[in-house]
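Now for one record:
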Amino acid sequence: MPRAFIGIGSNIEPEENIREALRLLAKSARIVSISTFYREPAVDRPEEPDFYNGVVAIDTDLSPITLKWKVLRAIEAALGRRRSADKYASRTIDLDLLLYGDSVLSSNELTLPEPDVLKRAFIAVPLSEIAPELVLPGFGIPIRQLAERLPTEGMQPLYEYTRQLRNKLLDGNNSS
């Protein structure tokens, strides 16, 4: 069964929306690992609420396209996500398919690996935490090296929140 990595972020009621998104995701896939979540300022938006960001690893038999469009986007819609032309607007939830096994894809529907893995510490750092030996498909870059090179100032680990998520989701519905 392929292993996929999902980036999760929110800056509108993030504690509740991330918890609920993970609960809904667990209905469609087996959550095997949850990274530390981090709080950090919105990109280039000091007036907006801080984001919570993290990464989860899942095992799924769904195709990457089905996972993105039928599961992740459906969860976003259920939690009130409204997409606009503003890529950095506040959001209830953001679920991005970062990696799917060793897949390398580039189409109008999906790009894998997600290009932001290469430039956003709030993706690369949590990803390297739960998959430290991972080599980025198509790039040959160890995720650990990439994470070490990206600036992390402003990222505050949310250890207690992460512990609560792991206790609820990994011990309850999913065994790791």
